[in-house]
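Supplementary Text 2. Reproducibility record for the structural model of the 289-residue chain.

All settings were left at their defaults, and a single model was retained for analysis rather than an ensemble. We include the record here because the model underlies the residue-level annotations in Supplementary Table 4.
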Amino acid sequence: MLQRDIEVKLLRTLLAVVNEDGFSRAAQSLHVTQPTVSQQIQRLESIIQAPLFQRTKRPLLLTPAGRELVAHARRVILLNNEVLNKVSAIRSQESFSMGCSIHFADGLRTMLTQLALERPHVRCSTVTGVSAALADQVAAGELEAALLLGTETPRCDMLGRLRLGWFGHVPVGPGERVPIALTGDRSALSIRIVETLAEHGIAWRSAVWSSDPLAVRAAVQAGLAYTALDETAHDTHPELRPAPPGALGPAPAPLPVYLAFSPTVHPSVVDAARAAARAVLEGAPLSPP
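Retained model, structure tokens:
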């Protein structure tokens, strides 16, 4: 059987003729010519394969087929408008996916609060992890943006340098190696820690090696090892004890902080991601780029 479809604009023309009680006034309300209205009604009749109006009578009267079609036309147009309104509402809501280095996870609450206040129509889905892994997701287009510590990508903004400090309080006897907690999986912070210890001739041993930075922090809080974190980490986590002066030599040099973008990121996402990054880093000990 041949498929026949009715265009919504033809149904709108039919309703205009009925509502305006004539072809001429319908043409005026639709801002088209009267011949255009007549042609569209004829197209409808050819699709329905039945006349819609009793043209020999005045005033203009609908045929039974016309009355049936008008009843359905009103429902079709209402549904059409409902669909368009809902789709338009969805499209009007900006959304983006953003990764956040686990070292900045404490700022996510502030980020979400600020976005809700400043950009209520922006929906942000977030994931946390080690910067190197997040950078891979950005490169693959799985994330549109990511806040990274010490990991640069082809398309990124440098937001500043995170100042670091030594944390931990573990008794170390003469000749003993200093126990160090490190984050695995290509962590830029762990690389900086190892380089700093080597630079200053500090003999050390790996006491904790975990892919989860939270486990590293827990080991330091438990008094099992030393590590380096942002220099104000004890403000947020009072149980973290700054290392005794001179225990491990100078603190590691600050690490650059980057806001990375995927190669295909939409321009509208860039500003939202920058606003989110500023909120996450609020209060962080950053030196200028």
